[in-house]
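Hi support team,

I submitted a single chain yesterday and got back a structure, but I'm not sure I'm reading the token output correctly. Could someone confirm the output below corresponds to the sequence I sent? I've pasted both exactly as they appear in my results page.

Thanks,
R.
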Amino acid sequence: MKHYRTGWISDVHLGTRGSQAEALLDFLRAHEFETLYVVGDLIDVWQLRRGIYWPQAHNDVIQKLLRAGRKGTRIIYIPGNHDEFVADFVGDFGAVTIEPRAIHETADGRRLLVIHGHELDAVVQNIK
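Hi R., thanks for writing in. Yes, this is the structure output for that exact sequence:
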């Protein structure tokens, strides 16, 4: 298993047939992180409103993330536009911290703004 200080995943879109949940599981099984940013659209609520599609691999992704958190990975969840319902729950929830945005400091001291990006898209903001 490879160990990294920080990792980012986004736009997994669990709940859709196009989600690459199995590939993400393979990735998570082969890598561990001190901090893992989940940067929006982990779950695609927009699609789930149209019909339920939730195979076991989608459960496995959620369980793998929660297990990583229990084992010490700091998980920071930045909600996106497809999982915006999560944005109402800012704070710490077990091993997961939900934040509207974060500042990540790199190993060499640079500061990076971590956002999903939908808040910069006028079309997405007005399509609700």
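A quick pointer for reading it: The two ends are 42 Å apart (CA to CA). Let us know if anything else looks off.

Best,
Support desk
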